[in-house]
Amino acid sequence: MRRLLLGLASIAILLAAAAVAGVAAAGAATDLCVAANGGVRVQKGDASCQASGTGSVAIAKGAIARATATGGDHNKARAFGDGSTARADGGDNNTATASGTNSLAAARIGDNNTATASGFQSTAFAGLGDNNTAIATSDHCDATATGGNASDSCY
After folding, report:
1. How does strand 95-98 pair with strand 76-80?
2. How far apart are CA 127 and CA 107, in angstroms?
3. Residues 46 and 9 in one domain
4. Taking a C-beta distance cutoff of 8 angstroms, is the pair 128, 147 a contact?
5. Structural domain tally of the chain?
């Protein structure tokens, strides 16, 4: 009888722990914003986003994350990380991805520009012309590609 009671108590503890873990996992993604083609589709917490233009998408995930895909068609902005900012605007087919804490990626003022910042407090800017690529993958790194058909990176 004692073994049965111990077994039931163990099961109860495991079920309680699983329930608590499920609540923690469900509450983990509270800062999220998704916008597409001129409308915000999802808004949770303090992440913010904006998208306008045909095929434009902005996704922000993280505390105070910001994503903007405006001023043209088929722009993509993705900000993943607390305090991260991604801007793809002022042209068509621009892509900005910021995936580090406090990182900034901007693909602006031109067409077909790509900016990727994935390090802690890294910055990538591609623009002021067409077909520029800037990649910043290490912490506190700055990459800038401007003018047209330019590229810059730091690792």
Report:
1. parallel
2. 6
3. no
4. yes
5. 2
Q: Tell me: the pLDDT tens digits for 64-112?
A: 999 999 999 999 999 999 999 999 999 999 999 999 999 999 999 999 9
If asked whether residues 25 and 74 sit together in one domain, one would say no
**CA angle 115-37-41, nearest 5°?**
100
The answer on 143 and 85 residing in a single domain is yes
Which residue reads 């088929």 in tokens?
74
**Full domain range(s) for residue 17:** 1-29
- What is the C-alpha to C-alpha distance for residues 93 and 87, in angstroms, rounded to an integer? 12
Q: Are residues 41 and 24 in the same domain?
A: no
Residue 149 falls in which region: left (phi positive, over 0), alpha (psi -120 to 50) or beta: left
CB distance 127 to 113 below 8 Å: yes
